[in-house]
Specification:
This protein is mainly α. The chain contains 7 helices and 2 strands; from the N terminus they run ββααααααα.
């Protein structure tokens, strides 16, 4: 985790998006939010974080679309702040409003790390494939990616949980027989 993020910007870059940078951020996020105290603080300050995230998102959109000047650095800062703060706010809201037990939530508790590992890969793959087929059709790109990535991610989770070698690679326990 000691690798400076700017050094990862061009590493494994595909279409201007760095896979190494995203993997670094995912692992950093998982490391930070593994501590329950952080989640409790996110829950406590969820509304302030949400308001800050919305404000940063509005400023980001303004700077990117409607401003007449070149504000690339400021736009990049507001983009990063809005993404990070909104993620923390949504985690806090989820802790507050979605923290309950049931069949689905118990199932997802055992698959959350696998889902976390696999979902982004499938989102990128299906965005790429659907864009090649349908072009810039926003509805198809959004709904198709959401549906197909969820199906593929759950399939990968179920396959991984049944194969001991993949359990070892992903750091999960194999399914009890």
């Amino acid at each position: 985790m000691g690798i400076p993020l700017p050094l990862l910007g061009e590493l494994l870059s595909i279409g201007g998006k760095s896979l190494a940078e995203f993997m670094y951020l995912f692992l950093l996020g998982y490391f930070v939010f593994a501590d329950e105290k952080i989640i409790e603080k996110a829950e406590k300050y969820r509304l302030i974080l949400f308001g800050t995230g919305v404000a940063a998102s509005i400023l980001n959109v303004y700077l990117f679309i409607w401003s007449d000047g070149e504000y690339e650095v400021l736009n990049n800062i507001t983009d990063c702040v809005s993404e990070w703060i909104m993620i923390i706010a949504l985690i806090g809201m989820a802790k507050r409003y979605l923290n309950f037990s049931g069949k689905v939530s118990d199932y997802m508790k055992t698959r959350s790390f696998l889902y976390y590992i696999y979902h982004f890969v499938w989102v990128v793959v299906f965005q790429y494939v659907l864009y090649a087929i349908f072009g810039n059709n926003t509805l198809v790109l959004f709904a198709g990616t959401l549906l197909l990535a969820a199906i593929a991610t759950f399939a990968c989770c179920e396959i991984s949980i049944r194969i001991p070698f993949l359990c070892f690679l992903t750091g999960t326990k194999s399914r009890s027989k």
